[in-house]
Amino acid sequence: MYRSKELRWFSRQETEHIAHWFLRHHLSFDTVESRSDQYLVDYSREDIAPKLREGNIEIKYRIHPPREYALSRTVNGYFEEWVKWSFQLDARHKLAREIISGQFYAQEWLEVQKERMGVKVIRQDGDLEIHGIEEFFRSGCQIEYTRIQVAAKTWYSFNLEWFGDEFTELDDTLLLDILGDSALHLQESMGYGKFLKQIR
Question: Staple 116 to which of 26, 103, 124, 146, CB 3.0 to 4.6 Å?
Answer without folding.
Answer: 146
